[in-house]
Amino acid sequence: MELKDLCLSLAKCNTENEVIEILKAEELWDDEEKWQFFGDNENNYSIIGNQQSKPEAAIVEKIINSVDAMLMAECLKRKIKPDSDQAPQSIKQALSSFYKIHEGKLTNIDTTERGKLAENICFIATGTKKNPSYTIVDKGEGQTPGNLKNTILSLGKSNKLRIPFVQGKFNMGGTGVFRFCGQHNIQLIISKRHPEIAKNEHDPTKNYWGFTIVRREDPKQGVRSSNYKYLSVNEQILFFDAPSLSLLPGTYPSAYEKELEWGTFMKFYEYQIGPYKSPVLFDLYNKLSLLMPNIALPVRMYERRPGYKANSYETNLAGLSVRINEDKSNNIEEGYPTSGFLTVLGQKMKYSIYVFKRGKSEKYTKNEGIIFTINGQTHGYLSKAFYNRKAVGLAYLADSILVNLDCTDFDGRAREDLFMNSRDRLSDCVLKSEIESSLEDLLRNHPGLKLLKEKRRREEIEDKLNDAKPLVEVLENILRKSPTLSRLFIKGVRLQNPFDNRPTGSVDVFDGKEFPTYFNLTKNYPSNSPKEASLGSRFRIQFKTDVSNDYFDRNKNPGEFKVFLNGIEYKDTSINLWNGYATLNVLIENRNIDEILHFKTEVSDISRTEPFKSEFYVRVIEPLQKRPSQSGKRR
Fold it and tell me: Following DSSP, what letter does each residue of 390-416 receive, concatenated?
């Protein structure tokens, strides 16, 4: 078979058996000399087997790699060295520079623009309903056949380590999908270098398509673990010349109709996606949106498995923030999202609190209560059980709250401490414990959440009382007909409901401005009358303002809040903003008793030439004394 035909035949397979039959017919499957260790490492399973623990998280890593490939292509097309000072120094800068996306957020461009961008990265479902295969195609930088072993087929190299505007760092996350691919963990890789980039390079294979198959081999001949290998004839990736390949989807159910001229095509056969086998526009779309709440570039998702009847077979995946923004009025409680920042152990985090209306959260989140994100990708989460903690006290809202904690500004060491290299779970460390403690304090004292918790509690009581009305009527009828029973109860006295079950009504709507016209302290604390603050505890200062609740972490033109202690920026702070009041929380540590601290604050945004400035004084007092335990007494 001609190599081009072999490549296309493998691309159109939907089961591992089909792939194996083709490779056996070409005498490639059983010839050990034609397979090389992935990453040139016989012990590669020790790394590959320790990647994402869930199939959907592994898919995310592949999509993120495609996003990186698109950003790399734009940089190289401009003849900018990706690790130089001339290159964008963040993903946000890259999106703004290369794609003119304001603030690097997809919510700042319209649906038409997102649709055009989404055509550059495709996610395609083929195969059968019960046994799907998935393909990811991007029109990014692509790789030459000669360089595939140093990039996509490498492991643990520093290819992206010094490139600040891409997500990938460790050169291993993309291998997480292997374990979820069928019995033999087969994956197909096809790639061709972007022609504008290739013309400036000296690789003799730069104008060719390269392709290979990755597979898993079981332990044998005394080897104690599996390993992964890729197809390579005479230590060379198979390659051929062709202007384009029919690898892009056409009209449903056609999966391979339109031409791909360059980029990378990856197919995962018989992918074990777990509970997300329904059409990709539903459950999997929802899950990927949550795992990439602020994805840098949109993805076009195609359902191409036969047998489905739907109004549409494709959609654009643009992240949770876009989804919520587009249908916020129908699904989000009034006044939300609200935003602010936390600083824990010197690490600053922006947060957004979303509260969904009753029964509206299921299509956005399942068990995730607090998601930790970096550059728009979820790296770990705390479950909804967090809100049931006594220190939080939001059990009535537990099924409705989602907090997005943006950790993009963490330094390298803090990222390594908090997140596992697989980027799908958190490490149990001091930083995590301190973040949880700060979140408990923030959520417990958030005025908006307090009001909504009480509203939900009263609604639940009303529902229960309404359900009890038939029983009340029956008892009253019995008592009227039985004088004897009536005398046994308190004569003429009706038992009072212990709860305030007046109609819950609705809270007055706060109409916040886009930019504040004032941001003032509600109470002054001059040097001769400072606020007292206990050493080792947090104190609170409140401001009055007229700006909207999402001011500090909105998609377009967010505000910035800074705190200075004795002229130096102070990090151990957090702020929450709710309906005209901003509450600043400050932790006091490593200070002397009776020391007077001089604080200044600044609030700035794009609309102001000068920030709003405030100042106040604090006197440090003795630490709070914990009350002795009352555990020996019964209530």
Answer: TTT--GGGTTTEEEEEE-TT--HHHHH
